[in-house]
Amino acid sequence: MKSLLRTVAGFSMAINLLWLGPALFSLQVFDRVLTSQSQETLLVLLLGLAIALVLVGALDFLRGRLQGVLGNIVNDAMAPEIARLSLAVAARRQGAFTNEALRDVGRLRALFSSQGLVAVMDAPWALIFIAVIAVANLWLGLAALLSAVLMLGLAYANDRMTKQSIEKLQKDAGASQRFLDQAMVNAEVAQAMGMADALVGRWNALSAKVADLQDPVAQRSVAMASATRIARQLTQVLMTALGAWLVIRGEATPGVLIASNMLLGRALQPVEQIVGSWKIMAEGRLAWRRLDPLMSEAFNRRPQMALPAPNGQLSTTGLVFRPQGSERTLLMGVSIRLEAGESLAILGPSGAGKSTLVRLLIGLWAPSQGHVRLDGVDLSRWTREQIGPHIGYMPQDVELFAGSVADNIARMGPVDPGLVVEAAQLAGVHELVLGLPDGYDTQVDPNAALLSPGQRQRIALARALYGNPKLVVLDEPNANLDGAGELALAETLKRLQGKATVVVVTHRQTLTQHVHKMLVIEGGRQTHFGRTDEVLAALRGGHAPAGGQVVSLARAAQAAQAAQAAPAAQAKV
Protein backbone atom coordinates (compact mmCIF):
# COMPACT_ATOMS: atom_id res chain seq x y z
CA MET A 1 0.00 0.00 0.00
CA LYS A 2 2.74 2.46 0.91
CA SER A 3 4.53 1.87 -2.38
CA LEU A 4 1.38 2.43 -4.40
CA LEU A 5 0.45 5.50 -2.36
CA ARG A 6 3.88 6.97 -3.09
CA THR A 7 3.36 6.23 -6.78
CA VAL A 8 -0.08 7.89 -6.75
CA ALA A 9 1.43 10.88 -4.93
CA GLY A 10 4.19 11.05 -7.55
CA PHE A 11 1.62 11.07 -10.36
CA SER A 12 -0.26 13.81 -8.52
CA MET A 13 2.90 15.91 -8.36
CA ALA A 14 3.55 15.49 -12.08
CA ILE A 15 -0.10 16.24 -12.94
CA ASN A 16 -0.17 19.40 -10.84
CA LEU A 17 3.11 20.63 -12.33
CA LEU A 18 1.73 20.05 -15.82
CA TRP A 19 -1.43 21.97 -14.88
CA LEU A 20 0.77 25.05 -14.70
CA GLY A 21 0.89 24.81 -18.50
CA PRO A 22 -2.53 26.38 -19.30
CA ALA A 23 -1.81 29.34 -16.98
CA LEU A 24 1.63 29.92 -18.49
CA PHE A 25 0.10 29.59 -21.97
CA SER A 26 -2.49 32.28 -21.19
CA LEU A 27 0.19 34.54 -19.67
CA GLN A 28 2.40 34.27 -22.76
CA VAL A 29 -0.46 34.72 -25.20
CA PHE A 30 -1.82 37.89 -23.60
CA ASP A 31 1.52 39.47 -22.69
CA ARG A 32 3.75 38.38 -25.61
CA VAL A 33 1.86 36.95 -28.57
CA LEU A 34 -0.77 39.70 -28.75
CA THR A 35 1.88 42.41 -28.52
CA SER A 36 4.44 40.77 -30.84
CA GLN A 37 1.87 39.40 -33.31
CA SER A 38 4.16 36.33 -33.63
CA GLN A 39 2.30 33.38 -35.13
CA GLU A 40 5.35 31.14 -34.70
CA THR A 41 5.39 31.79 -30.93
CA LEU A 42 1.67 31.00 -30.74
CA LEU A 43 2.21 27.73 -32.65
CA VAL A 44 5.08 26.66 -30.36
CA LEU A 45 3.02 27.51 -27.27
CA LEU A 46 0.06 25.52 -28.62
CA LEU A 47 2.28 22.53 -29.33
CA GLY A 48 3.80 22.65 -25.85
CA LEU A 49 0.39 22.94 -24.19
CA ALA A 50 -0.99 20.05 -26.27
CA ILE A 51 1.89 17.81 -25.13
CA ALA A 52 1.32 18.84 -21.50
CA LEU A 53 -2.40 18.09 -21.68
CA VAL A 54 -1.81 14.70 -23.31
CA LEU A 55 0.59 13.84 -20.49
CA VAL A 56 -1.94 15.05 -17.93
CA GLY A 57 -4.61 12.79 -19.43
CA ALA A 58 -2.30 9.76 -19.52
CA LEU A 59 -1.04 10.27 -15.96
CA ASP A 60 -4.56 10.92 -14.66
CA PHE A 61 -5.73 7.67 -16.29
CA LEU A 62 -2.85 5.73 -14.74
CA ARG A 63 -3.48 7.34 -11.37
CA GLY A 64 -7.14 6.29 -11.51
CA ARG A 65 -6.17 2.73 -12.40
CA LEU A 66 -3.66 2.63 -9.55
CA GLN A 67 -6.39 3.83 -7.20
CA GLY A 68 -8.56 0.91 -8.25
CA VAL A 69 -5.65 -1.48 -7.62
CA LEU A 70 -5.06 0.20 -4.26
CA GLY A 71 -8.69 -0.35 -3.28
CA ASN A 72 -8.44 -4.03 -4.26
CA ILE A 73 -5.23 -4.42 -2.27
CA VAL A 74 -6.89 -2.89 0.79
CA ASN A 75 -9.75 -5.37 0.46
CA ASP A 76 -7.60 -8.42 -0.35
CA ALA A 77 -5.08 -7.68 2.38
CA MET A 78 -7.50 -6.82 5.16
CA ALA A 79 -10.70 -8.77 4.48
CA PRO A 80 -9.32 -12.32 5.15
CA GLU A 81 -7.59 -11.27 8.36
CA ILE A 82 -10.60 -9.28 9.55
CA ALA A 83 -12.81 -12.30 8.75
CA ARG A 84 -10.56 -14.55 10.86
CA LEU A 85 -10.62 -12.12 13.77
CA SER A 86 -14.38 -11.69 13.40
CA LEU A 87 -14.85 -15.47 13.56
CA ALA A 88 -12.75 -15.55 16.73
CA VAL A 89 -14.87 -12.77 18.26
CA ALA A 90 -18.08 -14.57 17.23
CA ALA A 91 -16.80 -17.80 18.79
CA ARG A 92 -16.03 -16.06 22.07
CA ARG A 93 -19.40 -14.26 22.04
CA GLN A 94 -18.25 -12.00 24.83
CA GLY A 95 -19.83 -8.65 24.09
CA ALA A 96 -21.90 -7.77 21.06
CA PHE A 97 -20.49 -9.11 17.82
CA THR A 98 -21.40 -7.82 14.39
CA ASN A 99 -20.00 -8.21 10.93
CA GLU A 100 -19.59 -4.42 10.85
CA ALA A 101 -15.82 -4.94 10.59
CA LEU A 102 -16.18 -6.47 7.12
CA ARG A 103 -18.41 -3.58 6.07
CA ASP A 104 -15.70 -1.24 7.36
CA VAL A 105 -13.24 -2.91 5.00
CA GLY A 106 -15.65 -2.08 2.17
CA ARG A 107 -15.77 1.54 3.33
CA LEU A 108 -11.97 1.71 3.31
CA ARG A 109 -11.91 0.25 -0.17
CA ALA A 110 -14.34 2.94 -1.31
CA LEU A 111 -12.18 5.61 0.33
CA PHE A 112 -8.98 4.53 -1.39
CA SER A 113 -10.80 4.32 -4.72
CA SER A 114 -12.57 7.68 -4.40
CA GLN A 115 -11.77 11.09 -5.83
CA GLY A 116 -11.46 12.33 -2.27
CA LEU A 117 -8.08 10.61 -1.91
CA VAL A 118 -6.83 12.30 -5.09
CA ALA A 119 -8.13 15.64 -3.81
CA VAL A 120 -6.24 15.18 -0.53
CA MET A 121 -3.02 14.57 -2.48
CA ASP A 122 -3.73 17.59 -4.73
CA ALA A 123 -4.63 19.94 -1.86
CA PRO A 124 -1.03 20.74 -0.76
CA TRP A 125 -0.29 21.94 -4.29
CA ALA A 126 -2.66 24.83 -3.68
CA LEU A 127 0.21 26.49 -1.81
CA ILE A 128 2.43 26.17 -4.90
CA PHE A 129 -0.21 27.72 -7.14
CA ILE A 130 -0.79 30.55 -4.65
CA ALA A 131 2.98 31.14 -4.45
CA VAL A 132 3.15 31.39 -8.27
CA ILE A 133 0.29 33.93 -8.21
CA ALA A 134 2.08 35.92 -5.48
CA VAL A 135 5.26 35.99 -7.55
CA ALA A 136 3.28 37.47 -10.43
CA ASN A 137 1.46 39.95 -8.20
CA LEU A 138 1.53 40.23 -4.41
CA TRP A 139 -2.03 41.55 -4.07
CA LEU A 140 -3.44 38.75 -6.19
CA GLY A 141 -1.41 36.27 -4.18
CA LEU A 142 -2.87 37.55 -0.90
CA ALA A 143 -6.38 37.39 -2.36
CA ALA A 144 -5.77 33.79 -3.48
CA LEU A 145 -4.50 32.90 0.01
CA LEU A 146 -7.62 34.36 1.65
CA SER A 147 -9.79 32.42 -0.82
CA ALA A 148 -8.01 29.17 0.09
CA VAL A 149 -8.41 29.88 3.82
CA LEU A 150 -12.14 30.48 3.27
CA MET A 151 -12.53 27.18 1.45
CA LEU A 152 -10.58 25.30 4.12
CA GLY A 153 -12.79 26.91 6.76
CA LEU A 154 -15.86 25.60 4.97
CA ALA A 155 -14.33 22.11 4.84
CA TYR A 156 -13.56 22.23 8.57
CA ALA A 157 -17.08 23.45 9.35
CA ASN A 158 -18.46 20.57 7.29
CA ASP A 159 -16.40 18.13 9.35
CA ARG A 160 -17.62 19.59 12.63
CA MET A 161 -21.24 19.57 11.49
CA THR A 162 -21.39 16.01 10.15
CA LYS A 163 -18.77 13.96 12.02
CA GLN A 164 -20.86 12.87 15.02
CA SER A 165 -24.01 12.50 12.94
CA ILE A 166 -22.29 10.17 10.46
CA GLU A 167 -20.86 8.09 13.32
CA LYS A 168 -24.29 7.82 14.97
CA LEU A 169 -25.87 7.02 11.59
CA GLN A 170 -23.45 4.14 11.00
CA LYS A 171 -24.07 2.76 14.48
CA ASP A 172 -27.86 2.81 14.14
CA ALA A 173 -27.75 1.44 10.60
CA GLY A 174 -25.62 -1.46 11.85
CA ALA A 175 -28.11 -2.16 14.66
CA SER A 176 -30.99 -2.22 12.18
CA GLN A 177 -29.15 -4.62 9.88
CA ARG A 178 -28.21 -6.91 12.78
CA PHE A 179 -31.80 -7.11 13.92
CA LEU A 180 -32.92 -8.05 10.40
CA ASP A 181 -30.17 -10.69 10.09
CA GLN A 182 -31.17 -12.23 13.42
CA ALA A 183 -34.82 -12.27 12.37
CA MET A 184 -33.90 -14.11 9.17
CA VAL A 185 -31.94 -16.71 11.13
CA ASN A 186 -35.02 -17.36 13.29
CA ALA A 187 -37.48 -17.11 10.38
CA GLU A 188 -38.96 -20.55 11.07
CA VAL A 189 -39.94 -19.66 14.62
CA ALA A 190 -41.19 -16.23 13.59
CA GLN A 191 -43.38 -17.62 10.81
CA ALA A 192 -44.74 -20.50 12.86
CA MET A 193 -45.87 -18.29 15.75
CA GLY A 194 -47.08 -15.33 13.72
CA MET A 195 -44.27 -13.02 14.81
CA ALA A 196 -43.56 -11.63 11.34
CA ASP A 197 -45.60 -8.43 11.74
CA ALA A 198 -44.06 -7.70 15.13
CA LEU A 199 -40.52 -8.27 13.84
CA VAL A 200 -41.06 -6.24 10.70
CA GLY A 201 -42.62 -3.47 12.77
CA ARG A 202 -39.64 -3.34 15.10
CA TRP A 203 -37.19 -3.41 12.19
CA ASN A 204 -39.21 -0.66 10.49
CA ALA A 205 -38.94 1.45 13.65
CA LEU A 206 -35.17 0.99 13.67
CA SER A 207 -35.02 1.87 9.96
CA ALA A 208 -37.13 4.97 10.56
CA LYS A 209 -34.67 6.03 13.23
CA VAL A 210 -31.86 5.66 10.70
CA ALA A 211 -33.83 7.65 8.12
CA ASP A 212 -34.45 10.41 10.67
CA LEU A 213 -30.69 10.71 11.10
CA GLN A 214 -29.89 10.29 7.42
CA ASP A 215 -32.01 13.16 6.15
CA PRO A 216 -30.32 15.89 8.24
CA VAL A 217 -26.87 14.52 7.39
CA ALA A 218 -27.72 14.51 3.69
CA GLN A 219 -29.18 18.00 3.89
CA ARG A 220 -26.12 19.40 5.65
CA SER A 221 -23.77 17.67 3.21
CA VAL A 222 -25.67 18.98 0.18
CA ALA A 223 -25.87 22.46 1.72
CA MET A 224 -22.14 22.56 2.42
CA ALA A 225 -21.31 21.28 -1.06
CA SER A 226 -23.51 24.01 -2.59
CA ALA A 227 -21.99 26.66 -0.32
CA THR A 228 -18.51 25.51 -1.31
CA ARG A 229 -19.29 25.75 -5.02
CA ILE A 230 -20.82 29.21 -4.59
CA ALA A 231 -17.86 30.35 -2.47
CA ARG A 232 -15.45 29.15 -5.12
CA GLN A 233 -17.27 31.00 -7.92
CA LEU A 234 -17.56 34.10 -5.76
CA THR A 235 -13.87 34.15 -4.92
CA GLN A 236 -12.95 33.77 -8.59
CA VAL A 237 -15.29 36.64 -9.53
CA LEU A 238 -13.76 38.85 -6.83
CA MET A 239 -10.31 37.75 -7.97
CA THR A 240 -11.18 38.80 -11.52
CA ALA A 241 -12.47 42.17 -10.30
CA LEU A 242 -9.33 42.75 -8.26
CA GLY A 243 -7.13 41.78 -11.18
CA ALA A 244 -9.03 44.10 -13.52
CA TRP A 245 -8.63 46.95 -11.04
CA LEU A 246 -4.89 46.27 -10.85
CA VAL A 247 -4.67 46.19 -14.67
CA ILE A 248 -6.47 49.55 -14.85
CA ARG A 249 -3.99 51.01 -12.37
CA GLY A 250 -1.12 49.55 -14.35
CA GLU A 251 0.03 47.28 -11.51
CA ALA A 252 -0.69 44.05 -13.41
CA THR A 253 -0.98 42.83 -16.99
CA PRO A 254 -3.96 41.10 -18.63
CA GLY A 255 -1.89 37.93 -18.89
CA VAL A 256 -1.27 37.94 -15.13
CA LEU A 257 -5.00 38.44 -14.53
CA ILE A 258 -6.02 35.48 -16.71
CA ALA A 259 -3.22 33.19 -15.46
CA SER A 260 -3.97 34.01 -11.79
CA ASN A 261 -7.63 33.18 -12.26
CA MET A 262 -6.77 29.83 -13.82
CA LEU A 263 -4.28 28.97 -11.06
CA LEU A 264 -6.75 30.01 -8.37
CA GLY A 265 -9.38 27.72 -9.87
CA ARG A 266 -6.89 24.87 -9.88
CA ALA A 267 -5.86 25.62 -6.27
CA LEU A 268 -9.46 25.64 -4.97
CA GLN A 269 -10.68 22.61 -6.93
CA PRO A 270 -9.26 19.97 -4.53
CA VAL A 271 -10.96 21.63 -1.55
CA GLU A 272 -14.28 21.56 -3.40
CA GLN A 273 -13.74 17.88 -4.26
CA ILE A 274 -12.92 17.07 -0.62
CA VAL A 275 -16.17 18.67 0.53
CA GLY A 276 -18.08 16.82 -2.20
CA SER A 277 -16.57 13.48 -1.14
CA TRP A 278 -16.80 14.22 2.55
CA LYS A 279 -19.29 11.47 3.42
CA ILE A 280 -17.10 8.77 1.88
CA MET A 281 -14.01 10.19 3.54
CA ALA A 282 -15.69 10.54 6.94
CA GLU A 283 -17.03 6.98 6.79
CA GLY A 284 -13.60 5.73 5.73
CA ARG A 285 -11.92 7.58 8.58
CA LEU A 286 -14.36 6.14 11.12
CA ALA A 287 -13.90 2.69 9.59
CA TRP A 288 -10.13 3.00 9.92
CA ARG A 289 -10.51 4.01 13.56
CA ARG A 290 -12.70 0.99 14.31
CA LEU A 291 -10.47 -1.44 12.41
CA ASP A 292 -7.23 -0.15 13.91
CA PRO A 293 -7.46 -2.23 17.14
CA LEU A 294 -8.26 -5.40 15.19
CA MET A 295 -5.44 -4.87 12.71
CA SER A 296 -3.05 -3.96 15.54
CA GLU A 297 -3.95 -7.25 17.23
CA ALA A 298 -3.15 -9.12 14.01
CA PHE A 299 0.04 -7.12 13.39
CA ASN A 300 1.36 -7.55 16.93
CA ARG A 301 0.62 -11.28 17.02
CA ARG A 302 3.98 -12.97 17.11
CA PRO A 303 4.46 -16.25 15.24
CA GLN A 304 4.70 -19.13 17.69
CA MET A 305 6.92 -22.14 17.35
CA ALA A 306 4.97 -25.19 16.24
CA LEU A 307 4.45 -27.62 19.11
CA PRO A 308 4.33 -31.41 18.68
CA ALA A 309 0.94 -32.99 18.13
CA PRO A 310 -0.80 -33.61 21.48
CA ASN A 311 -1.47 -37.09 22.85
CA GLY A 312 -4.65 -36.00 24.63
CA GLN A 313 -3.77 -35.61 28.32
CA LEU A 314 -6.20 -32.95 29.59
CA SER A 315 -6.10 -31.13 32.91
CA THR A 316 -7.61 -28.01 34.45
CA THR A 317 -6.56 -26.19 37.61
CA GLY A 318 -8.90 -23.91 39.55
CA LEU A 319 -10.90 -22.76 36.52
CA VAL A 320 -12.82 -19.55 37.09
CA PHE A 321 -14.75 -17.80 34.36
CA ARG A 322 -16.43 -14.43 34.52
CA PRO A 323 -17.74 -12.83 31.31
CA GLN A 324 -16.04 -9.62 30.29
CA GLY A 325 -17.79 -6.62 31.78
CA SER A 326 -19.93 -8.76 34.09
CA GLU A 327 -19.77 -9.35 37.83
CA ARG A 328 -21.45 -12.75 37.58
CA THR A 329 -19.16 -15.77 37.84
CA LEU A 330 -20.34 -18.63 35.62
CA LEU A 331 -17.73 -21.16 36.69
CA MET A 332 -15.65 -21.41 39.84
CA GLY A 333 -12.91 -23.77 40.97
CA VAL A 334 -13.14 -26.64 38.48
CA SER A 335 -10.13 -28.95 38.54
CA ILE A 336 -10.02 -32.21 36.58
CA ARG A 337 -7.44 -34.50 35.03
CA LEU A 338 -7.82 -37.00 32.20
CA GLU A 339 -5.06 -39.19 30.90
CA ALA A 340 -4.72 -39.67 27.15
CA GLY A 341 -7.48 -41.97 25.93
CA GLU A 342 -9.73 -41.53 28.97
CA SER A 343 -13.31 -40.29 28.73
CA LEU A 344 -15.38 -37.98 30.91
CA ALA A 345 -19.12 -37.33 31.24
CA ILE A 346 -20.18 -33.90 32.51
CA LEU A 347 -23.58 -33.79 34.22
CA GLY A 348 -25.54 -31.03 35.87
CA PRO A 349 -28.81 -29.09 35.68
CA SER A 350 -29.49 -26.46 33.04
CA GLY A 351 -27.49 -23.31 33.63
CA ALA A 352 -24.93 -25.11 35.77
CA GLY A 353 -22.02 -24.01 33.53
CA LYS A 354 -21.49 -27.16 31.47
CA SER A 355 -21.33 -25.41 28.07
CA THR A 356 -19.11 -22.72 29.59
CA LEU A 357 -16.69 -25.40 30.75
CA VAL A 358 -16.75 -27.00 27.30
CA ARG A 359 -15.76 -23.74 25.62
CA LEU A 360 -12.91 -23.35 28.09
CA LEU A 361 -11.72 -26.92 27.52
CA ILE A 362 -11.37 -26.39 23.75
CA GLY A 363 -9.84 -22.92 24.11
CA LEU A 364 -12.66 -20.86 22.61
CA TRP A 365 -12.82 -18.82 25.80
CA ALA A 366 -9.95 -17.86 28.03
CA PRO A 367 -10.43 -18.52 31.76
CA SER A 368 -10.52 -15.56 34.14
CA GLN A 369 -8.36 -17.61 36.50
CA GLY A 370 -6.75 -21.01 36.28
CA HIS A 371 -5.42 -22.97 33.34
CA VAL A 372 -6.49 -25.54 30.77
CA ARG A 373 -3.58 -27.72 29.72
CA LEU A 374 -3.28 -30.26 26.95
CA ASP A 375 -0.24 -32.50 27.37
CA GLY A 376 0.89 -30.04 30.03
CA VAL A 377 0.85 -27.08 27.62
CA ASP A 378 -1.53 -24.19 28.21
CA LEU A 379 -4.07 -24.06 25.40
CA SER A 380 -3.36 -20.34 24.89
CA ARG A 381 0.14 -21.22 23.63
CA TRP A 382 -1.32 -22.96 20.60
CA THR A 383 -2.72 -21.03 17.69
CA ARG A 384 -6.10 -22.19 16.44
CA GLU A 385 -4.49 -23.23 13.16
CA GLN A 386 -2.12 -25.53 15.08
CA ILE A 387 -4.47 -27.02 17.65
CA GLY A 388 -7.72 -27.04 15.65
CA PRO A 389 -7.03 -30.21 13.62
CA HIS A 390 -6.32 -32.11 16.87
CA ILE A 391 -9.66 -31.13 18.45
CA GLY A 392 -13.05 -32.55 17.57
CA TYR A 393 -15.98 -30.44 18.75
CA MET A 394 -19.72 -30.79 18.37
CA PRO A 395 -21.70 -27.91 19.91
CA GLN A 396 -25.13 -28.16 21.43
CA ASP A 397 -26.69 -26.24 18.54
CA VAL A 398 -25.44 -28.02 15.41
CA GLU A 399 -24.97 -25.99 12.23
CA LEU A 400 -23.75 -27.34 8.90
CA PHE A 401 -22.20 -25.19 6.18
CA ALA A 402 -23.30 -24.69 2.60
CA GLY A 403 -21.48 -27.36 0.60
CA SER A 404 -21.54 -31.11 0.18
CA VAL A 405 -21.78 -33.63 3.01
CA ALA A 406 -18.16 -34.57 2.29
CA ASP A 407 -17.14 -30.89 2.51
CA ASN A 408 -18.80 -30.61 5.91
CA ILE A 409 -17.21 -33.77 7.26
CA ALA A 410 -13.82 -32.60 5.94
CA ARG A 411 -14.28 -29.33 7.84
CA MET A 412 -14.68 -27.35 4.59
CA GLY A 413 -11.06 -28.02 3.66
CA PRO A 414 -9.59 -30.25 0.94
CA VAL A 415 -11.60 -33.48 0.90
CA ASP A 416 -9.62 -36.64 1.62
CA PRO A 417 -12.09 -39.42 0.65
CA GLY A 418 -10.40 -42.00 2.85
CA LEU A 419 -10.49 -39.79 5.95
CA VAL A 420 -14.07 -38.71 5.22
CA VAL A 421 -15.33 -42.30 5.00
CA GLU A 422 -13.27 -43.30 8.04
CA ALA A 423 -14.81 -40.49 10.12
CA ALA A 424 -18.31 -41.35 8.88
CA GLN A 425 -17.85 -45.01 9.77
CA LEU A 426 -16.46 -44.14 13.19
CA ALA A 427 -19.51 -41.94 13.80
CA GLY A 428 -21.83 -44.67 12.50
CA VAL A 429 -23.23 -42.41 9.80
CA HIS A 430 -21.73 -44.02 6.67
CA GLU A 431 -24.87 -45.96 5.73
CA LEU A 432 -27.04 -42.91 6.42
CA VAL A 433 -24.95 -40.78 4.04
CA LEU A 434 -25.05 -43.45 1.33
CA GLY A 435 -28.84 -43.31 1.55
CA LEU A 436 -28.91 -39.59 0.69
CA PRO A 437 -29.79 -38.58 -2.92
CA ASP A 438 -26.16 -38.06 -3.97
CA GLY A 439 -24.37 -39.79 -1.12
CA TYR A 440 -21.37 -37.85 0.07
CA ASP A 441 -21.86 -35.34 -2.78
CA THR A 442 -25.32 -34.35 -1.50
CA GLN A 443 -25.43 -30.58 -1.19
CA VAL A 444 -26.29 -29.25 2.25
CA ASP A 445 -28.50 -26.19 2.46
CA PRO A 446 -28.33 -24.87 6.04
CA ASN A 447 -31.90 -23.57 5.74
CA ALA A 448 -33.47 -26.51 3.91
CA ALA A 449 -35.24 -29.50 5.42
CA LEU A 450 -33.40 -32.19 3.45
CA LEU A 451 -31.63 -33.36 6.62
CA SER A 452 -33.43 -33.85 9.92
CA PRO A 453 -31.91 -32.42 13.13
CA GLY A 454 -30.80 -35.93 14.10
CA GLN A 455 -29.08 -36.49 10.74
CA ARG A 456 -27.36 -33.12 10.99
CA GLN A 457 -26.16 -34.04 14.46
CA ARG A 458 -24.72 -37.35 13.30
CA ILE A 459 -22.94 -35.67 10.33
CA ALA A 460 -21.58 -33.08 12.77
CA LEU A 461 -20.26 -35.96 14.89
CA ALA A 462 -18.41 -37.31 11.85
CA ARG A 463 -17.00 -33.80 11.29
CA ALA A 464 -15.77 -33.76 14.88
CA LEU A 465 -14.00 -37.11 14.35
CA TYR A 466 -12.42 -36.19 10.99
CA GLY A 467 -8.64 -36.55 10.99
CA ASN A 468 -8.54 -38.65 14.19
CA PRO A 469 -8.33 -35.78 16.71
CA LYS A 470 -6.82 -36.48 20.12
CA LEU A 471 -9.37 -34.45 22.08
CA VAL A 472 -13.07 -34.92 21.30
CA VAL A 473 -15.62 -32.71 23.08
CA LEU A 474 -19.32 -33.38 22.52
CA ASP A 475 -21.96 -31.06 23.97
CA GLU A 476 -25.30 -32.89 24.24
CA PRO A 477 -24.47 -35.25 21.31
CA ASN A 478 -27.69 -37.24 21.75
CA ALA A 479 -30.11 -34.32 22.04
CA ASN A 480 -31.83 -35.02 18.70
CA LEU A 481 -31.00 -38.69 18.20
CA ASP A 482 -33.49 -41.54 17.83
CA GLY A 483 -32.89 -45.05 19.10
CA ALA A 484 -30.60 -45.99 16.21
CA GLY A 485 -28.65 -42.79 16.65
CA GLU A 486 -28.25 -43.45 20.38
CA LEU A 487 -26.87 -46.92 19.67
CA ALA A 488 -24.49 -45.55 17.03
CA LEU A 489 -23.27 -42.89 19.47
CA ALA A 490 -22.68 -45.46 22.19
CA GLU A 491 -20.74 -47.61 19.72
CA THR A 492 -18.67 -44.57 18.72
CA LEU A 493 -17.76 -43.86 22.34
CA LYS A 494 -16.62 -47.48 22.73
CA ARG A 495 -14.44 -47.25 19.62
CA LEU A 496 -12.85 -44.01 20.82
CA GLN A 497 -11.70 -45.50 24.13
CA GLY A 498 -7.94 -45.47 24.23
CA LYS A 499 -7.72 -43.60 20.90
CA ALA A 500 -8.81 -40.13 21.97
CA THR A 501 -9.62 -38.21 25.11
CA VAL A 502 -13.40 -37.74 25.08
CA VAL A 503 -15.51 -35.24 27.01
CA VAL A 504 -19.31 -35.67 26.77
CA VAL A 505 -21.91 -33.29 28.17
CA THR A 506 -25.16 -35.15 28.72
CA HIS A 507 -28.38 -35.15 30.70
CA ARG A 508 -28.88 -38.88 30.15
CA GLN A 509 -27.32 -41.50 32.39
CA THR A 510 -27.30 -44.00 29.50
CA LEU A 511 -24.00 -42.63 28.21
CA THR A 512 -22.23 -42.80 31.55
CA GLN A 513 -21.60 -46.54 31.22
CA HIS A 514 -19.27 -45.80 28.29
CA VAL A 515 -16.99 -43.30 30.12
CA HIS A 516 -14.19 -43.68 32.63
CA LYS A 517 -14.89 -40.62 34.79
CA MET A 518 -17.74 -38.29 35.69
CA LEU A 519 -17.93 -34.64 36.66
CA VAL A 520 -21.03 -33.11 38.25
CA ILE A 521 -21.46 -29.32 38.19
CA GLU A 522 -24.07 -27.38 40.10
CA GLY A 523 -24.33 -23.59 40.16
CA GLY A 524 -20.99 -23.25 38.42
CA ARG A 525 -19.18 -25.28 41.07
CA GLN A 526 -17.68 -28.74 40.88
CA THR A 527 -19.54 -31.02 43.28
CA HIS A 528 -18.36 -34.47 42.16
CA PHE A 529 -15.41 -35.73 40.18
CA GLY A 530 -13.96 -39.20 40.04
CA ARG A 531 -14.37 -42.63 38.49
CA THR A 532 -17.82 -43.28 37.12
CA ASP A 533 -18.71 -45.94 39.67
CA GLU A 534 -17.57 -43.70 42.53
CA VAL A 535 -19.65 -40.75 41.39
CA LEU A 536 -22.73 -42.86 40.69
CA ALA A 537 -22.45 -44.43 44.13
CA ALA A 538 -22.29 -41.00 45.74
CA LEU A 539 -25.18 -39.68 43.67
CA ARG A 540 -27.37 -42.63 44.76
CA GLY A 541 -26.72 -41.81 48.39
CA GLY A 542 -24.16 -44.51 49.01
CA HIS A 543 -20.52 -44.21 49.95
CA ALA A 544 -17.71 -44.01 47.48
CA PRO A 545 -15.03 -46.71 47.56
CA ALA A 546 -11.82 -46.00 49.39
CA GLY A 547 -9.76 -43.38 47.64
CA GLY A 548 -12.83 -41.81 46.01
CA GLN A 549 -12.93 -38.06 45.60
CA VAL A 550 -16.69 -37.47 45.71
CA VAL A 551 -19.10 -35.95 48.23
CA SER A 552 -22.81 -36.80 48.15
CA LEU A 553 -25.34 -33.98 47.71
CA ALA A 554 -29.05 -34.59 48.15
CA ARG A 555 -30.03 -32.36 45.25
CA ALA A 556 -27.55 -34.03 42.91
CA ALA A 557 -28.80 -37.44 44.01
CA GLN A 558 -32.39 -36.51 43.26
CA ALA A 559 -31.41 -35.21 39.83
CA ALA A 560 -29.46 -38.36 39.11
CA GLN A 561 -32.31 -40.62 40.17
CA ALA A 562 -34.75 -38.70 37.97
CA ALA A 563 -32.35 -38.91 35.02
CA GLN A 564 -31.85 -42.64 35.64
CA ALA A 565 -35.60 -43.25 35.67
CA ALA A 566 -36.12 -41.35 32.41
CA PRO A 567 -34.81 -44.09 30.02
CA ALA A 568 -37.09 -46.72 31.62
CA ALA A 569 -40.11 -44.43 31.28
CA GLN A 570 -39.23 -43.73 27.66
CA ALA A 571 -38.87 -47.43 26.95
CA LYS A 572 -42.30 -48.12 28.46
CA VAL A 573 -43.85 -45.37 26.29
UniProtKB/TrEMBL annotation:
Localization in the cell: Cell membrane
Source species, domain of life: Bacteria
InterPro entries membership: AAA+_ATPase (IPR003593), ABC1_TM_dom (IPR011527), ABC1_TM_sf (IPR036640), ABC_transporter-like_ATP-bd (IPR003439), ABC_transporter-like_CS (IPR017871), ATPase_T1SS_PrtD-like (IPR010128), P-loop_NTPase (IPR027417), Type_1_exporter (IPR039421)
Cellular component, GO annotation: plasma membrane; type I protein secretion system complex
Keyword vocabulary terms for this entry: ATP-binding, Cell membrane, Membrane, Nucleotide-binding, Transmembrane, Transmembrane helix
One Pfam family of this chain: ABC_tran
Protein name stated in the entry: Type I secretion system ATPase
Entry annotated with the keyword Transferase: no
Protein's GO biological process: protein secretion by the type I secretion system
Species: Leptothrix cholodnii (strain ATCC 51168 / LMG 8142 / SP-6)
MF term (GO), any: ABC-type transporter activity
Domain ABC transmembrane type-1: residue ranges: 8-283
Stretches assigned to the ABC transporter domain: 314-548
PROSITE patterns in the record: ABC_TM1F (PS50929), ABC_TRANSPORTER_1 (PS00211), ABC_TRANSPORTER_2 (PS50893)
Keyword ATP-binding attributed: yes
TM ranges: 7-30, 42-62
Membrane topology annotation: Multi-pass membrane protein
NCBIfam families from the UniProt entry: type_I_sec_PrtD
